[in-house]
Amino acid sequence: MKLDKKIALLAVVAVLLCALYLVWGLNSGNWDYLLAKRMPKLIAILAVGSAIALASLLFQTITNNRVLTPSILGLDSVYLFFQTLLIFIFGSAQLTFLSDNINFLLSTLIMTGFSLLLYKFMFKQNNQNIYFLLLVGIVLGTFFRSAASFMQMLIDPNEYLHVQDKMFASFNNVNEYILIVAIAIMLLTLPFIADYIRSLDVMLLGKDQAVNLGVDYEKISRRILIIVSILTAVATALVGPILFLGLLVVNISFEFLKTYKHTYLLVAGSLLAVIALIGGQLIIERIFNFSVTLSVVINFVGGIYFVFLLLKERNT
User: Under DSSP, is residue 30 helix (H, G, I), strand (E, B) or coil?
Assistant: First the structure.
């Protein structure tokens, strides 16, 4: 099957799932109420799924590693640490002064700022070694997650429930104003990604081959890392962390398309992310009746796939 037909097939499946999600259970008495509730959730799924797929594919390209995701930089841990710190200091009752809008902006700025400081310091001090940057990201991510766990053990169990809501991604209470801001930020990154599409195709061959073919590998890697950080930070601040979604959809995109062209991979990854999130949301709402969260299902499936990839890489 040609690449265009494969993309069209994924698009048809995604559109059908979106339509099914919108119209399931509608009748003449509830269609206006349910559509008003489902439309923002569907738009959020489209935006977050696309952002995570783009960020994960770009990150795997510049690291030339199929089992890594942007979460290795520690952004999820920073987000969780910040949310726990707010509850630890102010408590949920006094936290009402901090609206969802301000919380979103602060979370995005802190995660993006953390990434920029990390890049600036590490690239300057370590001769632009991206793998050393990833190692530092793992260490700092562990530190922030451990600090968050320590505070969670000290706070009241009732307060912990509020922290727990932030630990898992959820599309059930998406703020429409925040959603518009998040989409605007994501759209601003697209022209920069488009500028590097051809270079990314070459970078997928590896650093040495890309440099030999005339690609400014270090410069493009730094700029793509910033874009990855912004997309990951916005998606995480909007709905919460989803660790394995990017790993899952990007690797399935490679296996399904069998191509190196990012023009197709970016589209396929976004469509697969939408299919996974909409399909998962339908299962959560219609089968499990909201008894589990979507991120739990995604992380469970993604975790199994991650182990499969590790075993596959070991045997090759």
Answer: coil
Give 260's Cβ-side CA count (13 Å radius): 11
* For residues 202-214, average pLDDT: 83
Residue corresponding to tokens 């940057």: 133
CA–CA gap between residue 297 and residue 148 (Å, rounded): 23
Q: Provide the sign of the torsion angle of the four alpha carbons 98, 104, 107, 110, taken in this order.
A: negative
Let me know: does 79 contact 237? Beta carbons within 8 Å. yes
Each residue of 26-72: pLDDT tens digit?
888 888 888 888 898 899 989 999 999 999 999 888 888 777 788 77
Q: Which amino acid is at 28?
A: S
For 171, 207, 284, the CA distances from 165, given in Å and listed in that order, are 12, 41, 16
Domains present along the chain, CATH in parentheses = 3-315 (1.10.3470.10)
Is there a contact between 238 and 178 (Cβ–Cβ < 8 Å)? yes
Coil vs helix vs strand at 62: helix
pTM of the entire structure?
0.86
Structure tokens at 233: 């930070």
Cα 14 to Cα 35, 258, 266, 268, 272: the distances in Å are 18, 20, 15, 11, 8
For 91, other C-beta atoms within 10 Å of its C-beta total 14
Interval 151-207: pLDDT, tens: 888 888 887 877 777 777 777 777 888 889 889 989 998 998 888 888 888 888 877
Show the tokens assigned to 94.
Answer: 């006094």
> Which tokens in the block code for residue 173?
């209470």
**Residue 243: closest CA among 113, 77, 127:** 77
**CA nearest 225: which of 140, 107, 120?**
120
d(CA 68, CA 59): 8
Number of CB atoms found within 10 A of residue 127's CB: 9
